[in-house]
Design goal:
single chain; about 2000 residues; mainly alpha; 4-stranded antiparallel β-sheet; two-stranded antiparallel ribbon; 82 helices
């Protein structure tokens, strides 16, 4: 300095500078004298030095000026001028002195000014200088002046100097403050209280000095605003302010004066500076100025952001910055906001508001909310720059939040505040208003300003920006918090995807497929389930659980062990339960118990955690209601058999008392037992939603320790994010949702538009999208860190929507990063929020599609290799490779998954996507952000690895609820993928030419179905507990099932494969314990697919082969799975898989597990039966049914049959093998029947056996004449044949299935087996029927030994015999049964044999012990068998009728000796019924003719003959043979001239294929509207076959009666009875039975005679039957007559001997009236004696009459006209073929064809015949009833007529016809009618053409019959067959027919004579063979007849009669005389 002063002295020459020279010299001297001790203070030195320098500066001489400048710098630097303390007076301080010295600065040149300002700057930078507010203001004003007037360099220097000064000033104040605080601390520590004057406030008071400076700056600003052109100064002043607030320390906020100044003065000043936007009066700030203001605002936040008092002005400031300007003008404010938001510290300042916080007030969040509103509003702006800024703001915010989460931006104090304010993370959630609330919060002056603005803008519509009026409402309406995500894009896509209509949930599927949801299906609440019992059982269960199971469980260490113990427990519970022998047992299966145990324990744990069991805690809510508890178990998707009552009781027990606590569980202890972890996993009680075992592993792996700062940061971040979430989503989503084309310009203008501008715009647009995606990435990871996963769905939906588009092999870098986020964060987010899964899965599909696009093309293998290779050694950098190697060795590498490792040691792939993108240079301008080629391939590899890892982790790590939601959503997504149409542009109209393509559209190449299969397998193999597997299967099973129905074969195949793999894995992994039914649920989908016919044949075959595979590989593990397995096999197509299916059947029987057998036996049996029924129904057989005219069809079908040989070999085997297996099955049942503790058989809801058992129907259908109405024959009651009584007897003696069965239901199963087999007998293919029948009978026969006779009889009665009857009825409906009868005959014969065997078994060897009661079931069997055989006899088929008779004969032969009397009665009554019914057709026809009438047109009805083409020649040949056999005597059959079958002498006819039907019409057709209703049809075949059957029956009866006669030897050659050994039968028969048998013979006799006395009818029959003689039934009449006589003689002799009847008594007996009802045997003997007398006398009379000639005139007709026709009046003709009925046209009748067909072709008749009979069975029954009503009415009419007959022979009005009256009289006189007579008297004259029998009308009562129940109401309909006034006109007959008739009648009468004589001779011969002792007792009876015979013309007879009388008289002459 001294040198410098000397230089100045040198330079200062001249007078003007004398002062300068002097000053410089003085100063120099002063400085030189400072060496001594008396130094001057530094301010004096400065003063003396500044004087010369000032003068030098003002001299303007350049040399001096430069010296002066150097001097200034020296003073600033030299320590001499700064040492020591400064004086009080601040004008002596260095800054003041400097300012004084440089006062001439402004007049200096530019350079000098800059230099001087630099001096000030240097000064400010030096360490020690005294400064105060006044000096600072002076300095600033000096700088300001320089700035205002100076050039650019000067300005820069001025600005720098001022700023530095202010900085120094603030630093100085801060140091001062800190010093005071240290002093305080020192004193505090030393504890001297005297010095405690200092407080925090006094320390902060230092900052008061800054207030005037700020005040000064503000006032300067206001002044500047008013001055024109003051812009420059404003910038300077603002920068100064900025520097000031920038450098003030944060501590200043404690200075109350300072804060007051801020809100009263400073902020309003800023606001007024900013002014109202668009305010024309005030000058608006320029952009630079406003930028600075915004920065000042942000610094204010730093200083006083936490002060509550300042919030209103701060909010006003931000409101003015961000909300007042219109969005388009917000670019700068937004950038400023970005700066604010970028800093975690600033955010913390805003968040940590001082004072108490009300959680809901939201004051602390108001500014952030305000900023967000502004951003959200701006994001809707069209200006891309504003949009970019708003997106960047959000990005900045999210970035700061991430930093906060790491603890950045918070000091210890802040962290403490935050942590104490929000104890838990959830408490930090923001719950206040979701938009910046109106202006009410802002300071009043500011509000007024805004209000004024509003008024202006309202009044002046051209106004400011359009948005301003909306300030209050606008922000709310534009971004209401309600919308999650942008409206236009997000919500829509989400709705459409979540639309569940197309996706069937588990429950819906169950309803659809009738999957048993639980037992409740099978049990209806209360009837079956005994509630008390169930409750008791449940309470017992709870005790067991609490006392035995839980203590054991709590001690176990691993959750797998716990689960195994629980399974065993469930199994044992059911075992114990099934062992109970209660009447009603609790129904349960182990699955139900297992799930219920879990649910109960889980509920218990939840209740413990919610404090339910605490005594003090009274108001804790129960987490689940009773109904929910029950539904949760029943709706689990597995087969659960536990009643709701039981579950409710369990629930209540748990609520009442904790099982876990009472078993010793301590909820407080740190180490939780395994059972609790297991329950936590099942209930998802752990917040992380991961398996507890997995979490333990993670703990071992180590997690970073968190600090209080990190905790606080996370809480604050969560608060911000909960407040701003909707806005964040909205801002980030808007640009992504926009269409790529922003501008709607035309193509031309776009071409013209400048390329450059377009490029720029495009770049901005790309930036925006990239920024959005980056923001979304941050948001996704934040939602994970902050546990806001539930909200992350909207973020992921945006990410997936923008990045998962299918773009082929091109991959934008941002999309790659998005996919990365979706896949790496997906698991963590999805496990908390199920809605996220959908987006994660779409990312997986996108990656798969990318992979497909990249690598599926030819030549892409190279690309793949390069990609994988580079991925493995990504750079040659050795460190990298080493890391790779470590990774590949690391066994626990799965722990490194990015989503879980928060400590950052994650595998190198994590960074790799970002790295690859970085390296690929995708962000360079030319590649436009798109990855191509190798880079895309690398990324793809990493992504697909992440996708794999995602599924892998889900399967292994998620807890049960998480896994459940994962799979449910995965199945939904897969369902959508499989079953929706694939179109790229859904909303566009289809072009017509695209429709073609659409049909060929295929589902995508990358299916989620594969993933579901993988995950399922991983879950199964991951060693999860069974309950997890159950849950998983209930979700994926139905989906696989749906997918298996897909039309695309590859998909359906894959789905079946998935089921197969899962089942195989489970069978291998999990052994099913007894009483569990989970395996059943496993195989259930297969059963549903086949049973509901949901899939095609290919899939069916695939399923069958899967099942066969299961059986081969895991036969022992299938257990309950056998049931659905057989359910599936049952409907499977066995054609191609016969061998495999049989193997399965065999294997099942070889499993020696009785429990498994019992569970599946029913299904097994049903399955076998189904294959037995369906085997062999192949094409060749269906062809047989085709009608002959469809020849083409047959050939076509033949071609169809593929491999005929295979078809024939395979199925037959299948049927026969299945039958063998069924026999084995029966053997096993037989063994299990006697097994102690036999397991219960599963009788599912499929079978209801407990209904009424089936019986044989006793009513025979369509019998023309009402069954029980006989005329001229004793009525006989058939009530004995009714089956009801026997059924009741069986029930009362305990022969019912329920009573015979064991608890195990074994007999029910056996019964079902036999039932199925019996129905299979009918339904099986014809060639298989014999085998089936054989098997059935073998099994039925075996029942005698095991279960026993009663069960056998039960099956015979209710299965076998009804089946036989159904089979017969079914066959009779078929047109041409042909072969079909063959198998039936076999079966029927076996059935008879079987019943006989059973009777022998029961009654044969035990007969000695007579007192044994008869078995009602045996009687029922006999009765039902006979009913069937009688019905057989009525069939119009020769074979079946013969079958019926021969079976009856067999029964009599074989069982006759063992039958009891009641059984014999049943037998004989059945015989009587058979005899009667078999003659019905004959009787029906006879009724149409009067006795002795020649007419063959009918007398009482019109008879026509119709021909029908429904037969074959061979059938007709046989029929004519039968007709000969039946209608001609032996001697008439063989014509001497002819040889061969038929005699064709008289009849010259060709046999054709027509059959003939007699049609009986009412006589008076005119009175009837529809005559067809009354047409009765009698087919000729029925008549012939009926008579044939009848004759065979009579033979049987005769043989039975004529065996073992003691007294007489019958002459069989006359009788033509083939002898059969019916020996010893009569010993068991009593008189009543014999009486009924005689009545049978009588019926036969009467009907034959009725026919024989009608010549016209006989002639007609001759013609129709192609006979060469008149038809007659002489043989039948004679046989029955002679046998009667023989038997009566035997009986009478027996009786006389037995009761020792004297001849005298005999006379009295014969004179007596016959008793109405015989009770004793004696009564019967009396009756027999009378009968014998009458028979004998009638025989003799009729013989004598033959030989007496009587003139023609006596030919009076009998009273037959009175008889009503007993026929079925409106039987519906059953049409047998569609051929038209043809009139009867035998060649002989040709001439009268017209007459005959006169009414045959009437329209109604034609219609009736042409249409086949389509009545159902019901109708038929109804018809029968109606018929009976009508007929019964006719009977009652009949009765009335008869009564008149007997009482007064007068006639009624109806019968005015004289003829009728005359007949009546004659009939009355002629006959002696005895009412109720058992015999009937018929002494009549016989002439050449007349037979004596007339049909006496004994009152015909309809026996009470089998249908006694039907009540009869007489219908008012007239019976057209009743006698009326109409007499039929005689029909014209051609002469040759008349001649034929005459010859026929003549020949016939000759034949009659011959037979009569033969008969008489035979009888006499018989009597003559008797010894005298035997003959003499009968004298009284035989005398009268014998006397008549003396008059005989035939010598032989005469002699025999005399001889007879002699022998009788010899013995009794004396006696008579006496």
């Amino acid at each position: 300095m001294e040198d410098l002063l000397l230089n100045i002295v040198k330079e200062a020459t001249g007078t003007k500078l004398a002062n300068l020279k002097q000053g410089a010299q003085e100063a120099h001297d002063l400085l030189c004298n400072q060496n001594n001790l008396l130094r001057s203070p530094s301010h004096e030195l400065r003063t003396s030095c500044f004087v010369p320098l000032k003068l030098a500066l003002e001299s303007k001489k350049s040399k001096l000026v430069s010296l002066a400048l150097t001097g200034f710098n020296k003073i600033v630097r030299d320590e001499r001028f700064q040492s020591g303390t400064e004086p009080e007076d601040d004008s002596l301080w260095l800054p003041a002195q400097l300012l004084l010295a440089t006062s001439s600065m402004l007049s200096q040149c530019e350079d000098t000014q800059v230099q001087l300002l630099r001096v000030v700057l240097n000064l400010a930078c030096s360490a020690s200088w005294a400064l105060n507010g006044r000096l600072v203001m002076l300095l600033i004003s000096r700088c300001g002046e320089a700035y205002e007037n100076g050039t650019q360099p000067v300005r820069a220097a001025a600005q720098a100097a001022a700023s530095q000064t202010l900085t120094a000033f603030c630093t100085f104040l801060d140091e001062e403050c800190q010093e005071i605080l240290q002093q305080q601390q020192k004193h505090k520590n030393s504890g001297s209280s005297a010095e405690m004057v200092y407080t925090k406030t006094s320390a902060v008071a230092c900052f008061n000095e800054a207030i005037p400076v700020m005040q000064y700056l503000c006032s300067r600003l206001e002044e500047a605003k008013t001055q024109p052109k003051s812009n420059d100064l404003t910038v300077f002043l603002l920068e100064c302010l900025l520097t000031l607030v920038n450098t003030l320390p944060h501590t200043v906020h404690s200075n109350i004066h300072f804060t007051t100044f801020l809100w009263q003065r400073f902020c309003p000043a800023l606001l007024s500076l900013l002014g109202a936007p668009g305010d024309p009066s005030g000058q608006c700030l320029t952009t630079t100025q406003s930028k600075i203001v915004y920065s000042i605002g942000i610094q204010v936040v730093r200083l006083v952001g936490r002060e509550r008092a300042l919030r209103p002005v701060l909010e006003a400031l931000f409101h003015r910055m961000l909300l007042l300007p219109s969005p388009i003008k917000r670019l700068e404010p937004l950038r400023a906001a970005r700066e604010l938001l970028r800093s975690p510290g600033r955010l913390a300042d805003l968040l940590l508001l001082s004072g108490a916080i009300h959680r809901h007030a939201g004051d602390d969040m108001a500014i952030i909310r305000l900023i967000m509103d502004s951003i959200e509003e701006s994001s809707q702006c069209n200006d891309t720059n504003v949009l970019l800024a708003s997106v960047e703001c959000v990005g900045a915010l999210l970035g700061s939040l991430e930093a906060l989460c790491r603890g950045e931006g918070l000091n210890q104090e802040g962290a403490e505040i935050a942590n104490s304010r929000y104890i838990t993370l959830e408490q930090a959630d923001y719950t206040g208003p979701l938009t910046y609330q109106s202006l009410a919060r802002l300071p009043k002056p500011y509000r007024d300003v805004v209000a004024n603005l509003k008024c202006q803008s309202d009044s002046d519509s051209s106004g400011i920006e359009g948005n301003i009026p909306d300030i209050e409402g606008g922000s709310e309406s534009d971004c209401s918090g309600a919308t999650e995500g942008p409206e236009e894009y997000g919500s829509q896509s989400e709705d459409s995807i979540m639309d569940d209509d197309s996706f069937l949930t588990n429950q819906q599927l169950q309803k659809l497929h009738k999957l048993p949801k639980s037992l409740n299906l099978g049990r209806s609440g209360l009837e079956e389930c005994n509630t008390d019992m169930e409750r008791h059982n449940a309470r017992h269960f709870v005790k067991t659980l609490q006392n035995i199971l839980l203590p054991n469980l709590l001690s176990l260490r691993s959750s797998i062990q716990v689960d195994e113990v629980l399974q065993e427990f469930a199994s044992k519970c059911c075992q114990h339960n099934s062992a109970q022998s209660y009447e009603i047992s609790t129904i349960m299966n182990a699955d139900g118990v297992y799930l219920a145990t879990y649910s109960a324990l889980l509920l218990d744990l939840k209740l413990i955690q919610s404090g339910h069991y605490d005594v003090n805690n009274k108001d804790s809510s129960v987490p689940i209601t009773e109904a929910q508890f029950v539904e949760e178990i029943h709706g689990s998707g597995v087969l659960v058999y536990v009643s709701a009552t039981w579950l409710c009781e369990l629930y209540q027990n748990v609520l009442a008392k904790s099982l876990l606590l009472s078993a010793g569980y301590d909820s407080k202890s740190l180490q939780q037992p395994a059972i609790v972890n297991l329950l936590t996993d099942v209930g998802g009680l752990c917040p992380s939603q991961l398996l507890s075992d997995w979490q333990k592993l993670q703990k071992v792996h180590g997690t970073p320790d968190s600090s209080p700062e990190v905790d606080a940061g996370i809480k604050l971040s969560r608060r911000v994010l909960t407040c701003c979430w909707a806005s964040v989503v909205s801002v980030l989503g808007t640009p992504l949702g926009e269409k790529t084309n922003f501008t709607g310009t035309s193509a031309l203008s776009r071409l013209v538009a400048r390329r450059a501008r377009q490029k720029h715009r495009q770049r901005v647009r790309d930036d925006i999208i990239t920024a959005c995606l980056e923001g979304l990435h941050k948001a996704a990871s934040l939602s994970n860190i902050l546990k806001l996963q539930s909200r992350s769905c909207s973020i992921l939906s945006l990410l997936s929507a923008s990045s998962c588009k299918n773009q082929g092999a091109k991959l934008p870098a941002s999309h790659a990063l998005s996919l990365d986020v979706l896949l790496s964060k997906g698991l963590a987010l999805g496990s908390h929020s199920a809605a996220c899964w959908l987006h994660v899965f779409s990312a997986c599909v996108a990656v798969a599609n990318l992979e497909h696009a990249l690598f599926s093309k030819t030549g892409s293998t190279q690309l793949l290799m390069v990609a994988q290779n580079t991925q493995n050694n990504t750079v040659t950098s050795s460190t990298y490779t080493n890391r790779r190697l470590d990774c590949s060795v690391d066994v626990y590498s799965f722990l490194h998954n990015a989503s879980y490792s928060s400590n950052g040691n994650s595998s190198p792939n994590d960074a790799s996507i970002a790295e690859i993108v970085e390296r690929s240079g995708a962000h360079n301008a030319q590649s436009q952000g798109i990855l191509r080629g190798v880079h895309a391939a690398k990324v793809c590899c990493v992504l697909s690895q992440k996708a794999d890892e995602l599924f892998h982790s889900a399967a292994l790590r998620l807890s049960l609820p998480g896994l459940g939601s994962f799979l449910t959503e995965l199945c939904k997504a897969s369902h959508t993928q499989l079953f929706t149409r694939y179109e790229d542009t859904p909303r566009q109209q289809k072009k017509w030419w695209k429709k073609e393509l659409e049909a060929q559209q295929k589902p995508p190449a990358t299916l989620l179905l594969h993933r579901i299969g993988e995950v399922t397998l991983k879950c199964i193999r991951s060693g999860r507990p069974l309950i997890h597997t159950m849950k998983v299967w209930s979700i994926v099973g139905p989906h696989f099932m749906q997918a298996a129905c897909h039309k695309d074969r590859t998909i359906s195949k894959k789905a079946v494969q998935c089921i197969h793999d899962a089942v195989t894995a489970l069978l291998n992994e999990q052994a099913e314990l007894p009483h569990f039914h989970f395996n059943e649920a496993l195989i259930k989908p297969f059963e549903n697919l086949l049973c509901l016919e949901l899939c095609d044949l290919d899939v069916q075959d695939q399923i069958v082969s899967c099942l066969c595979e299961f059986v081969e590989a895991n036969r022992t593990e299938i257990c309950s799975g056998w049931r659905p397995l057989f359910g599936t096999m049952r409907v499977a197509n066995a054609k191609n898989n016969a061998g495999a299916i049989l193997d399965v059947f065999r294997i099942f029987l070889s499993t020696d597990n009785t429990l498994v057998f019992a569970n599946a036996a029913l299904d097994y049996i049903l399955c076998l039966l189904s294959h037995i029924k369906n085997a062999n129904f192949d094409e060749s057989e269906t062809a047989v049914v085709v009608k002959p005219q469809d020849k083409k069809n047959i050939t076509f079908l033949d071609k169809e049959g593929d491999f005929p040989s295979k078809l024939i070999i395979g199925p037959v085997d299948l049927c026969i093998e299945s039958l063998k297996l069924l026999q084995n099955c029966a053997a096993i049942l037989s063994m299990m029947f006697n097994m102690p503790k036999c397991p219960n058989f599963n009788m599912t809801h499929r079978m209801s056996i407990d209904t009424d058992p089936q019986l044989v129907d006793p009513v025979i259908q369509n019998i023309e004449i009402v069954n029980f109405h006989q005329d001229a024959v004793d009525p006989i009651s058939y009530s004995v044949l009714s089956t009801r009584f026997d059924l009741e007897q069986c029930e009362s003696t305990g022969i019912t299935l329920a009573k015979m069965d064991r608890q195990s239901n074994v007999l029910k199963i056996w019964y079902i087996l036999l039932e199925g087999l019996s129905s299979a007998s009918i339904m099986a293919a014809q060639k298989n029927q014999p085998y089936v029948v054989e098997t059935l009978f073998k099994l039925l026969r075996d029942l005698i030994d095991n279960p026993g006779v009663n069960f056998g009889l039960y099956c015979i009665n209710h299965l076998l015999l009804p089946m036989v009857q159904n089979w017969m009825r079914q066959n009779s409906k078929i047109q041409k049964p042909g072969e079909i009868w063959q198998n039936f005959k076999h079966c029927c014969g076996l059935a008879s044999e079987l019943v006989v065997d059973y009777l022998h078994h029961l009654q044969g060897f035990e007969r000695k012990v007579d007192h044994l009661p008869e078995n009602p079931a045996a009687t029922l069997a006999l009765k039902q068998l006979l009913l069937i055989l009688v019905e057989c006899i009525t069939q119009p088929s020769e074979n079946i009728a013969r079958l019926g008779t021969s079976c009856i004969r067999h029964v009599i032969l074989s069982a006759g000796k063992v039958l009891t009397p009641p059984q014999w009665e049943i037998l004989v009554v059945a015989l009587h019924r058979a005899c009667t019914i078999s003659l019905n057709p004959l009787h029906q026809l006879t009724l149409a003719f009067k006795e002795n009438s020649d007419s063959f047109y009918g007398d009482l009805a019109t008879v026509k003959v119709a021909a029908r083409k429904d037969s074959t020649v061979s059938e007709n040949e046989r029929l004519y043979e039968l007709a000969q056999q039946v209608f001609l005597m032996q001697c008439q059959r063989n014509c001497q001239k002819c040889t061969g079958k038929l005699c064709e002498c008289d009849v010259n006819i060709v046999i054709d294929d027509r059959s003939y039907v007699f049609l009986l019409y009412p006589l008076d057709m005119s009175s009837i509207l529809n005559p067809d209703l009354y047409t009765v049809r009698v087919p000729f075949r029925n008549m012939v076959v009926g008579i044939l059957a009848h004759q065979m029956l009579i033979q049987t009866i005769s043989s039975a009666l004529l065996q073992n006669l003691n007294h007489i030897t019958p002459i069989l050659n006359i009788l033509q009875i083939s002898s059969c050994s019916l020996r010893g039968i009569l010993t068991h028969v009593n008189a009543k039975h014999v009486d009924i048998l005689l009545k049978c013979l009588e019926v036969s006799n009467v009907r034959a005679k009725q026919f024989d006395v009608r010549p016209g009818l006989k002639f007609l029959t001759q013609k129709v039957g192609n006979l060469n003689k008149a038809a007659n039934l002489y043989t039948q009449a004679n046989t029955s007559e002679v046998v009667q006589i023989i038997v009566l003689i035997e009986l009478c002799l027996d009786g006389i001997e037995k009761y020792r009847i004297k001849p005298k008594d005999l006379k009295d007996l014969l004179a007596k009236d016959v008793k109405a009802k015989c009770t004793t045997d004696l009564d019967y003997v009396e009756q027999f004696l009378k009968k014998l007398q009458n028979k004998w006398e009638y025989l003799c009379e009729s013989y004598i009459n033959l030989t007496i000639n009587i003139p023609e005139s006596v030919n009076q007709d009998s009273d037959d006209e009175l008889k009503s026709s007993n026929d079925n009046l409106n039987e519906i003709p059953v049409s047998e073929s569609s051929g038209k009925p043809q009139p009867f046209s035998l060649s002989d009748f040709k001439q009268e064809e017209d007459t005959l067909s006169s009414s045959t072709d009437s329209d109604g008749y034609l219609e009736k015949e042409v249409l086949p009979n389509i009545k159902t069975d019901d109708d038929t029954i109804y018809e029968t009833t109606k018929n009976e009503n009508k007929l019964k009415q006719s009977q009652s009419l009949d009765d009335s007529v008869l009564k008149k007959n007997k009482n007064e022979p007068s006639s009624t009005d109806d019968e005015t016809n004289e003829m009728a009256a005359k007949y009546t009289k004659q009939a009355y006189d002629k006959y002696k009618i005895e009412l109720n007579a058992i015999k009937y008297d018929t002494n009549t004259l016989l002439q050449m053409r007349k037979s004596t029998i007339s049909s006496d009308n004994i009152v015909a009562s309809c026996g009470d019959g089998l249908d006694g129940k039907k009540t009869v109401t007489p219908s008012p309909r007239i019976n057209p067959f009743m006698v009326s006034n109409v007499v039929p006109p005689p029909q014209p007959i051609p002469p040759e027919i008349q001649q034929q008739r005459a010859i026929s009648i003549f020949k016939d009468s000759e034949a009659y004579k011959t037979t009569r004589i033969e008969t008489m001779e035979a009888c006499l011969e018989l009597l003559s063979s008797l010894s005298s002792e035997k003959l003499s007792p009968l004298a009284t009876v035989l005398k009268q007849g014998a006397v008549l015979l003396i008059a005989a013309q035939d010598e032989k007879i005469k002699t025999a009669a005399e001889n007879l009388l002699n022998r009788m008289n010899i013995s009794y002459i004396d006696h008579d005389n006496f």
